[in-house]
Design goal:
Blueprint: H1 5-26, H2 33-55, H3 67-78, H4 82-90, H5 96-126, H6 143-156, H7 162-187, H8 193-199
Helix pairs in contact: 1-2, 1-3, 1-4, 2-5, 5-6, 6-7
């Protein structure tokens, strides 16, 4: 059997709910509202991802991986479990207003990530080889990455600790940025790309 990146990513998403529940049990955090909110956010993200993986998968996750590469990929993904570990260990109780901000970030991120990925999937299915530059892609060239960043910030901030944020930004710098630069280079083959790049931002509207 060929192991693909998708198999490892999907496994991580599936296990997240059980990992968080296990941490809640180990540290007896059943009465901790922040722990339950974290479970709801990260757990539902994993479930939605699995639905997406079956209905409109991203082809980039179909690449096969060797055993060492697979261990490295899963180990990198496992770093996202640092946030719930800190919440359970420290008994973190985020203020209500702070929790509301985290939920808002997560909700906006879910919308951007999955809606933009669905738009990309449908457009490229009907019109393959098209430069996607309408809808959510009109002003930002990577709205799916922006959505994913907001998702991770939404539940990473709940730990109220610097370490989950360091993990998120390390992954952004070491993995996301090279991928986005590679994609920009690939899109440069389209005649309309120069105009599209001039009118759009790389990741964050009105900023970069």
């Amino acid at each position: 059997m060929i192991i693909r990146q998708r198999h490892l990513v999907d496994t991580h998403k599936f296990l997240t709910t059980f990992v968080v529940l296990g941490l809640m049990a180990v540290y007896d955090q059943w009465s901790n509202t922040t722990a339950w909110v974290y479970l709801a956010l990260h757990g539902t993200y994993g479930m939605i991802w699995l639905i997406k993986s079956r209905t409109f998968p991203d082809k980039r996750w179909e690449a096969p991986v060797s055993i060492p590469q697979g261990i490295g990929l899963f180990g990198t993904l496992a770093l996202y479990w640092i946030a719930p570990l800190l919440i359970m260990q420290n008994g973190t109780q985020a203020p209500s207003w702070y929790t509301a901000i985290c939920i808002a970030l997560y909700t906006l991120g879910i919308f951007l990530h999955y809606t933009s990925d669905m738009q990309k999937h449908m457009v490229l299915t009907v019109h393959p080889g098209t430069l996607l530059r309408e809808g959510l892609w009109a002003r930002v060239r990577n709205p799916n990455y922006l959505g994913e960043l907001l998702i991770y910030l939404g539940y990473g901030l709940l730990a109220m600790h610097w370490l989950p944020l360091a993990v998120i930004f390390m992954i952004v710098l070491l993995i996301w940025v090279p991928n986005m630069l590679k994609k920009d280079k690939s899109l440069s083959r389209y005649p309309d790309y120069a105009e599209y790049r001039r009118k759009s931002k790389w990741l964050i509207p009105f900023l970069i």
